[in-house]
């Protein structure tokens, strides 16, 4: 389990239980979960409800099949919920990027804000506002160093209205509009790209067959 990794354990042992800490982890959404229309709304609601009750702040980011979650709170409060998150079968490839004691919260007004890091989901207005995030896209946090992680968190804090599916003004072709009545916008995009890819392969086969 990630919380039992040697580096993680050594870091946590040096921090008292009542200390305020910041913990950042990343994971990959499973293929099965990606096709569940309500997956993001469900995860966001679960996180917000629990965090409001336990004084946890932070942000939850998703892009390119990956989650990054920053959590701020007392160590003794954070660890049980983090372990529960690591046990969640909706995602895998869990890795802790950052654990550090802090004197104050950077996300003190964020009970748990969900940020989508996929430009195709953003409206033109959102793209202007989120320009500072461009250098972190495509979103591949598993390759990040501690410095990359801290720079990303700093950029996220500057976003006044986070990029979000419900506010993104998504435009899809006719096929996408038909499909999104059955699934969510994110899943519609995946399905449309899959269908177009299959059609392209078939066209090439017919052309050169």
From TrEMBL:
Keyword presence, Lipid metabolism: no
Domain BLUF: 20-113
Gene Ontology MF: a single term: FAD binding
One matching Pfam family: BLUF
PROSITE patterns (alphabetical): BLUF
Keyword Repeat tagged: no
Residues passing through the membrane, by range: 188-208
Keywords: Membrane, Transmembrane, Transmembrane helix
Signal peptide, first to last residue: none
This protein's name: Blue light sensor protein
Species this protein is from: Psychrobacter sanguinis
